[in-house]
Write a structure and sequence with these properties.
eleven-stranded mixed beta sheet; Rossmann fold; alpha/beta; 694 residues; three-stranded mixed beta sheet; 35% helix
């Protein structure tokens, strides 16, 4: 048949089908894109042709330049990127299923040849040629994102913890809903189920999020971990926070998130493109995107975590858009089983319901697909205006679908006398019943041939191969240019940059970045350890001189980083990792006293011997060479040689007079004293005994 001419807002999905004759007609089925703002549901058993129908719909949306977010739990929607305008066998060969070729007793090359021929014939039968495929390829940017993996483009979930760009007081209900969903997703990721109304974990985290977001402050995992230990809110309800959620229990929750963050497998969740809806819908150049989120490799908890964060971010983005009656964007969910159950309330369900009820006003269409029609909340789907119903195997499945369809018809204020039961029973592969509340009645249709090669789910290695050019381009763009050699920095290093060359974000990063070996936030300590923070001393003369020099070099102004010089150190604190010193900066001296048990005197150990590192990722360390040199010098002062007594004999009386008594010698055992000093520090003491030998 001849494909209808391209018309903006008209999606070519297939042709009408006559169930009585079992043949398709020559009447094309064109779907009005505006009807998608009232959402769509597609149900059908495995092999019914759901994937072909939905990919055909997404292809039509792409040609119309409608951006889309595509959630792909099984890996089928990655086939959208298998588009070959020339339809050559060598294009298909890398992607054909080797097992399919083996079953047909063909080589991969032979099978690719036959597949290419089949696709050429199938497309021609529907009036589609390579030019249409080329148009599709050029119209949108296709990207496969792989959360928690680097097989495709990584997605950084930290953006979902950033404060929404909305006024809190004016959008308190919306933001609190997002907080609730985000908290549930985070707790689910660490295996904690906490009721948002009664669960102490959920309530604490929700209060932390609200505190920061109300003040317009972004959160990330390190900051959240510290906030769990020392909450910024001191009262929850009528109770003090330590009564509501004891510090020891909070430490356990903080450790759960710390373990997650420390896991090497979690690092890929913190890399890649930000989870920012605008950039997922459009490239920097304004080209519409079809962003495929491949989540087949994730565990159930990880899937729920990511899906919830994405949906919550989408709801927030939606509320910031202006209203429209046209189709502006799409959310496609390839399998909602487990994410939209009839009775349970997983964290993904509330934002999905919100989108189904409110997204139409913002031109955001939602397409939900499932092959498990029994375990779906059909009451929530009554807002869907279009239903695509394919072949169903179980009678129970058909009853559930009919119940949902009738609810949607009633919600639209219509009545329908069609015998849907009979129609659904006659459906075959690639034949669907389409009911659109905006149309005059239901239509039985045969889906057209997909322009993309439907080879089935892709594996992660195949996704990596498919996205290799994009990943290479990203890596090249991220590679820093070779920096010119610079002279050795002075002891007190100061970096100056012309103000005109420093963007606000860069200034913030420069100010907060920690040196190598340091952390941006203080390390987590056991609640039993008392932490003490003392003020920092800055070398004022050196600082003024450095700023003056920077201003002279850059007359237009400068951004100057001044390192903190010395600091008074609190007593060492014990952690499971050994001795640690709490301070606001470092390195810094640690005063330590050596005690002479014999004489009762005390000797102050030279502070320069000690090199404490504030917030260091390594335990407190001692420069043994400096310590040995100091003790050697000390030994010269306190070592006492042994001496004999001096007596005077009186011949007249025969008596002896003691002129000088004998004195035992003593010598400082340097090695043993060094060990005593190190032991004292590890034990958290500021006093060590001198080890003297006679």
């Amino acid at each position: 048949m001849q494909a209808p001419p391209e018309k903006l807002g008209s999606f070519y999905l297939g042709a009408e089908y006559d169930l009585d004759t079992g043949a398709r007609t020559e009447l094309p089925v064109n779907y009005d894109a505006r009807d998608l703002v009232t959402h769509a549901v597609c149900v059908g058993m495995t092999g019914s042709g759901k994937t072909g129908l939905c990919i055909g719909l997404l292809e039509a949306a792409a040609i119309d330049k409608v951006p889309a977010l595509l959630l792909d739990p099984k890996g089928d929607i990655t086939n959208l990127l298998l588009q070959f305008p020339e339809l050559r066998p060598e294009d298909f060969a890398p992607w054909v299923n080797v097992d399919d070729a083996r079953r047909k007793e063909q080589t991969v090359e032979e099978y690719a040849q036959n597949t290419a021929g089949s696709w050429q014939k199938g497309l021609a039968d529907w009036g589609i040629d390579g030019a249409r495929i080329r148009t599709l390829l050029e119209t949108v940017d296709y990207t496969i994102f792989t959360p928690g993996s680097d097989a495709g483009v990584s997605i950084n979930i930290m953006g979902s913890l950033a404060a929404p760009a909305l006024d809190f007081d004016g959008n308190a209900e919306l933001i609190r809903e997002r907080i609730s969903g985000t908290v549930a997703a985070l707790l689910g990721l660490v295996g904690i189920k906490s009721d948002p109304i009664r669960g102490t974990e959920a309530i604490l985290l929700s209060n932390i999020f609200e505190h920061y977001w109300r003040n317009g402050e972004d959160l990330d995992l390190p900051k959240l971990i510290m906030a769990i230990q020392e909450p910024p809110v001191r009262q929850i309800g009528v109770f003090d926070v330590d009564t509501f959620y004891p510090q020891k229990d909070r430490f356990g929750l903080a450790m759960a998130f710390n373990n997650l963050m420390a896991s090497p497998t979690f690092k890929t969740w913190l890399e890649g493109e930000p989870l920012e809806i605008n950039s997922l819908f459009f490239t920097a150049e304004g080209k519409p995107r079809h962003s495929v989120f491949y989540i087949a490799h994730l565990s159930d908890s990880e899937r729920m975590f990511f899906v919830t964060l994405l949906l919550e971010a989408l709801v927030t983005w939606m509320r910031a858009q202006s209203g429209t009656t046209s189709l502006r964007s799409l959310l496609y969910f390839d399998e909602i089983f487990g994410f939209f159950p009839p009775s349970a309330e997983p964290s993904s369900k509330r934002p999905l319901l919100t989108l189904l009820k409110q997204a139409r006003a913002f031109g955001l269409g939602v397409i939900l697909v499932t092959q498990n029609p029994v375990d779906i909340d059909y009451k929530g789907l009554t807002n869907a205006g279009t239903w695509f119903i394919g072949k169903l195997q179980a009678e129970r499945d058909k009853e559930r679908v009919l119940s949902g369809l009738k609810g949607a018809i009633a919600e639209a204020g219509k009545s329908e006398k069609t015998d849907f039961d009979t129609l659904i029973s006659k459906l075959g592969s690639r034949v669907f019943l389409m009911h659109n509340v905006h149309a005059d009645g239901p239509v039985v249709m045969h889906t057209r041939w997909a322009q993309s090669y439907l080879r089935g789910p892709l594996t992660r290695p195949q996704v990596r191969d498919l996205m290799a050019p994009r990943l290479t381009a990203i890596a090249e763009a991220a590679a820093p240019a070779a920096a010119p050699a610079t002279p050795a920095a002075p002891a007190a290093e100061i970096t100056s940059v012309p103000a005109a060359e420093v963007a606000p974000a860069e200034i913030e990063t420069a100010a907060s970045a920690a040196p190598i070996g340091y952390l941006d936030v203080q390390p987590a300590l056991d609640p039993a350890v008392e932490q003490v923070f003392l003020p920092v001393d800055v070398d004022e003369d050196a600082t003024v001189a450095a700023i003056t020099q920077a201003l002279r070099e850059h007359a237009g102004g400068a951004h100057v980083r001044v390192p903190l010089a010395t600091v008074d150190i609190a007593p060492p604190q014990l952690t499971s990792g050994g001795a640690a010193v709490d301070a606001l900066a470092g390195p810094a001296p640690l005063p330590l006293v050596l005690h002479d048990a014999r004489s009762g005197t005390e000797v102050a150990l030279d502070p320069e011997v000690m090199r404490a590192v504030a917030f260091s990722t390594t335990p407190l360390r001692i420069d043994r060479d400096v310590l040995r040199a100091h003790l050697t010098a000390l030994a010269a002062e306190i070592d006492v040689p042994a001496r004999d007594a001096r007596l005077r004999f009186n011949p007249a009386t025969g008596g002896l007079t003691v002129i000088r008594s004998s004195q035992p010698g003593r010598q400082l055992d340097i090695d043993a004293t060094m060990t005593a000093v190190e032991t004292a520090l590890v034990d958290g003491r500021r006093q060590a005994d001198l080890v003297l030998v006679e």
